[in-house]
Structures are given as C-alpha cells and as structure tokens.
C-alpha cells in the first residue's frame, strides 16, 4: 500500500505546485491592476485637476485685468475695447481647453454659469454692468477652484486606498506562498521517509 500512498503524495505535490503557479500569476495580475489604477489616478489628478487649476488661475488674472481696465479713467474708448477684447479672446481659448477635461456634475454646473456670465459680459456695453458681471465671474472661478481642491483630495485618498489594498494583497499572497511551500516540503519529506522505510524493509528481507 506504500506505493499507493507515494503516488498520492506525488499527485498532492503536483497539485500544490499547480496552485502555487496560479497564485503567482494571480498575484502578478493583481499587482499590475493596482499599479494601473494608481497610474490612472495620478493621470486624472494632473490632467483634470492641476491643469484645470492653471486654467482657472489664468482666467482669474484676465478678469482682474479687465476690471482694472474698466475702473481706470482715461484712455481712448477704442484702446480700452481692444484691451478687453484681447483678454476675452485669451479667456475663450482657456475655456475651450477647460471644456475638454473631465468635469464633475457640480463643476459642470458652475462652469456653465461661468460661460453664461462671460457671454453676458461680452454683450453688455455698460461699465457698471460689466464690473458686476466680472465680479460674478470671479466668484464662480473661486468656486471652481474649490472643487478642484476637493476633487484632488478625493483622488489622493483613492490612490492611497489602492496602494494599501495592493500592499495587503501582496502580503497575503506572500504568506500563502510560504504555507504552500511548507506543505510541499512536508510532502517531499514524507515521500523520502516512505522510500527509506521501503529500502530498510527490503534489506531486512534479504
């Protein structure tokens, strides 16, 4: 019956090695998946938050320059109109780039209001009305900037959670690998013991 038990040990060892190979492959897959998710989070943070914050800052600067032009007395009407038009064209380029990024629901609502405010500004000819609209645009830009900060914090928390879960999964896979190797070693040791015992029995018979 020992030969049957030896065959069982070999089958168990083969099954253990197969499970170990699957575990290694699964662990590599999980590591790659977590790495890709973290990369995507970092990419989103840069493309949809940091870059957008730069757009918001530049638009804010343009609005302040427009306010200064409107508040400053003197200068020809044509010169003032040209300066404001140049700033508005710059803002239009920035808002077009902004629209190509991924916007949250709240951000989309604020951005739509900003575009509406800028359109009203261009349509208005009164300095007082334009100043009021410029102030409204600045408030909306500040709210958009706050959204960028909140979303950036959320992305960082998600990336941190992904890193932690990946670390736990790797530690679990490592521990499971150790256990499987110990089982395999036990099977090999048992097989050697049976072989030694069989050889001893053969010697005694002789």
Overview of the structural elements:
The protein has 206 residues and is an all-alpha fold. Helices cover 93% and strands 0% of the residues. The protein contains four helices and no strands. The protein has helices spanning 2-71, 77-99, 105-123, 127-205. The longest helix is centred in the last third of the chain and has 79 residues, at 127-205. The protein starts with a helix and ends with a helix. Mean pLDDT is 78; it is low at 1-5 and 197-206.
Short description:
This protein is mainly alpha-helical and 206 residues long. It has helices at 2-71, 77-99, 105-123, 127-205.
Structure keywords:
0% strand; disordered C terminus; mainly alpha; disordered N terminus; 206 residues
Choose one word for the global shape: rod-shaped
N-to-C span: 20 Å
Quick check: average pLDDT? 78
Largest sheet: none
Strand tally, please? 0
Tally of separate helices: 4
Roughly how much helix do the residues carry, as a percent range? over 70%
- Hey, roughly how much beta strand do the residues contain? under 5%
Classify the secondary structure makeup into a structural class: mainly alpha
Determine Rg (CA atoms, Å).
Answer: 35 Å
The ordered H/E elements are HHHH
Write the SSE topology.
Elements: H1 2-71, H2 77-99, H3 105-123, H4 127-205
